[in-house]
Amino acid sequence: MIGKLICLVPCAALLFVCYRTRFVAEKILKKEDPSDKLLLNIKITALCAAAVLFIAVMILFKN
Questions:
Q1: How many whole angstroms separate alpha carbon 61 and alpha carbon 30?
Q2: Cα distance between residue 61 and residue 39, in whole Å
Q3: CB–CB of 16/46 below 8 Å?
Q4: Statement: residue 63 has pLDDT above 80
Q5: What does the alpha-carbon distance between residue 31 and residue 50 come to, in Å, rounded to a whole number?
Q6: CA distance 26 to 34
Q7: For residues 4 and 48, which has the higher predicted lDDT (pLDDT)?
Q8: For residue 40, which of 50, 25, 55, 30 has the smallest C-alpha distance?
Q9: pLDDT tens column, 12-41
């Protein structure tokens, strides 16, 4: 159970990135005025990575 929780923390972080994309682009990527295409690419990448990680954790930790 602890292993599953540890593996799901990055998944939660990726969902935060997906939710607060403009904040991430401005503060972490240092983009003054991020374009809509950049924001959409960040959202798609974060959401796909979170989904893949979540599915992998659920399959690998079947306890």
A1: 37
A2: 33
A3: no
A4: no
A5: 23
A6: 7
A7: 48
A8: 25
A9: 999 999 999 999 899 998 988 999 999 999
User: Based on the number of CB atoms within 10 Å of its own CB, is 25 exposed (0-12), middle (13-18) or buried (19 or more)?
Assistant: buried
pLDDT at 44: 95
DSSP single-letter state for residue 28: T
Tell me whether residue 50 is exposed, middle or buried, using C-beta atoms within 10 angstroms of its C-beta: 0 to 12, 13 to 18, 19 or more.
buried
Integer angstrom CA distances of residue 58 from 1, 27, 34: 11, 32, 34
**Residue 2: other Cβ atoms inside 10 A:** 6
pTM for the model stands at 0.82
**pLDDT score, position 22:** 92
